[in-house]
Design a protein that fits this description.
alpha/beta; three-stranded antiparallel beta sheet; eight-stranded parallel barrel; 13 strands; TIM Barrel; globular
């Protein structure tokens, strides 16, 4: 069905099509017309039992408004956000662009969301019973030197409702955010988050893993340094990668010169390179979630071969639809056999 609907959706503005699709899924779920369960290929990562290793990446459902609907599409886990302490509108529209010949998107959304209190309310009211990750960030107008306060505020509120929490320091659409990935700035962010995690574990009687999401626009030495800091700070997992600011593979296409992060098929080679470098640097001391450029099942299997314990879809899901989920699960299962 999605193959029939996609040409109609792709005639619309990318963000409008995104919103209409989610609204339609939400209505179907509310009417109990959307039923589905994860394709079963269970694995245990970070102490969590995932029904299958293929998840939905953050960004599709920033506010947690459609968790149950998305959870009926076969994913082994859903990640919502990025959410910030206070609501913010994000960047001016238009801010999402399709590069259809390349199976790619460019977005400069800018952490548009309704704020952490809204997301928590939605999570608490959702019928979804599966594995849920919550992705947290900082408000655009919060100075970098005060970024800790935003991440700590979000962690405090989402901790009781998440199976894992992702610290997003790699979006290219919040000015200066990627500086938090480097050296002392990374230590200064992660140390208090780890301390807060310990306090929250005692308060709520459950341990919720902390995951850090990194950018693809790093060289091997930088990747190794990030890996060292993640290990030193006791982080539980890492997501590789976010979108890229490069335009490799889309040169000359309509919208290729738009500002923002590039995702989809052209990102795959760069994301896979960082994933492989990261996995080698970590040497099994921390699981990696592989994301970036998965538009076919074999791409998911390749990320697993390079060291990913789990994978996530976003842009490939927009181009291929729900059929991509079982295709990826099956390809990973064949690779494991």
């Amino acid at each position: 069905m999605y193959a029939l609907l996609r040409p109609l959706l792709f005639c619309l503005d990318a963000e409008l099509a995104h919103d209409l699709s989610l609204n339609a899924l939400g209505r179907l779920a509310d009417l109990h017309l959307l039923h589905g369960a994860p394709v079963q290929r269970s694995r245990r990562v970070m102490g969590i039992d995932f029904p299958n290793p293929v998840g939905l990446a953050a960004g599709l459902d920033k506010n947690g408004d459609y968790i149950a609907a998305l959870g009926a599409l076969g994913f082994g886990f859903i990640e919502v956000g990025t959410v910030t302490p206070r609501p913010q509108p994000g960047n001016p529209k238009p801010r999402m662009f399709r590069l259809t010949p390349a199976e790619a998107l460019i977005n400069r959304m800018g952490f548009n969301n309704k704020g952490v209190d809204h997301l928590v309310k939605q999570v608490r009211g959702s019928r979804y019973q599966g594995v849920l990750g919550i992705n947290i960030g900082k408000n655009k107008d919060t100075p970098l030197e005060q970024a800790n306060e935003d991440y700590l505020a979000c962690l405090e509120k989402v901790y009781p409702h998440a199976d894992y929490v992702v610290v997003n320091i790699s979006s290219p659409n919040t000015p200066g955010l990627r500086e938090l990935q480097r050296g002392e700035a990374l230590d200064a962010l992660l140390a208090p988050l780890k301390e807060s995690q310990g306090r929250l574990e005692s308060r709520h009687g459950r341990y919720v893993p902390l995951v850090v999401k990194i950018a693809p626009d790093m060289e091997g030495e930088e990747v190794a340094l990030v890996a060292d800091r993640l290990i030193a700070n006791g982080i539980d997992g890492v997501t590789a990668t976010n979108t890229t600011t490069t335009r490799d593979g889309v040169e000359g296409l309509a919208h290729a010169d738009e500002q923002g992060g590039l995702s989809g098929a052209p990102l795959r080679a760069r994301a896979d390179q960082v994933l492989e470098q990261l996995a080698q640097a970590l040497n099994g001391r921390m699981p990696v979630i592989g994301v970036g450029g998965i538009t076919a099942g074999d791409h998911a299997a390749e990320k697993e071969r390079l060291g990913a314990s789990l994978v996530q879809l976003y842009t490939g899901f927009i181009y291929r639809g729900p059929a991509l989920v079982p295709e990826c699960v099956s390809a990973m299962a064949r690779a494991d056999a």
